[in-house]
Structure formats: C-alpha cells, structure tokens
TrEMBL record:
Organism: Dyadobacter helix
Origin: domain of life: Bacteria
Protein's name according to its UniProt entry: DUF3244 domain-containing protein
Keyword Signal: yes
Alphabetical UniProt keywords: Signal
C-alpha cells in the first residue's frame, strides 16, 4: 500500500508545483496581482534599490533631485525588460530628495529624506570599582 501511495504523492506534489509556477508566470502589469512598475526599496540604512519593470520605451532617464529641484544624479540608459540599480546615499548631506524615472511621457517619483541622528546615552566605565 505504501509503495503505491508514494509515487502518487510525488506525482501530485510535482504537478502542484508545476501548476503554481505556471500561474505565477501569467502575472502581467494589467492584473490585480501586479501592484507597481516602479519600486524603491531600502536594502541597508543608506542603500536603496531602484527597480522599474516593463519600460514603454528602450531608454529611461533616472535622476536624483534635492529639495530645491537641483539635479544631483542623472543617467539615461538603454533598457529591455527591467531597470535595476543600487544607490549608495551615504555621501549625501541631510535633506529631502527625490528619485525620478522618466520613460517616454510617464514620470515616476519617490521622495526620501537623509537625516543624521545622534544618540545620547550614559555608560558605566569598566575601570572603576563599584565597591570602594
């Protein structure tokens, strides 16, 4: 009995996985499962990943602007299916900034702030004896 069930279960699991994989491939930018084409994700405290899927044209313009609309970074690049770039912002001064991506007539933007925080803490020095 066990020898008959084991191949059946393996076949069932394999078919289920194949079916799930096939369904995942059918997600397009026009379905409810696809939420956005333009993503900005913080991957480390001062590092961001900008990703753009399904470009309308073969070139996109990516810029970082400060709060006064000055362009601090600009890159016009050739894309096929996806634009993906890591940005290290550790050298930027405090302030408000915007990631901006232009694809044909469409412009996407995402604002962010660089803020330096200081902590005030008290610590016990290791050299001092508690009992004197």
């Amino acid at each position: 009995m066990k020898s008959v069930l084991k191949p059946f279960l393996i076949t069932f699991i394999a078919a289920s996985l194949f079916s799930a994989g096939a369904q995942a491939q059918h997600v397009s930018r026009h379905t409810e499962e696809f939420f956005s084409e333009f993503y900005v994700v913080q991957v480390k405290p001062m590092e961001f990943l900008l990703t753009y899927h399904f470009p309308q044209t073969d070139r996109v313009l990516v810029r970082i602007k400060d709060g006064e609309k000055n362009i601090l970074f600009a890159e016009k690049t050739l894309v096929y299916k996806k634009y993906k770039k890591f940005f290290d912002l550790s050298s930027m001064k405090d302030g408000n900034f915007t990631f901006e991506l232009t694809d044909g007539e469409t412009t996407y933007s995402r604002s962010f702030a660089v803020v330096t925080e200081t902590k005030r803490i008290a610590t016990i020095q290791k050299n001092e004896s508690f009992f004197e």
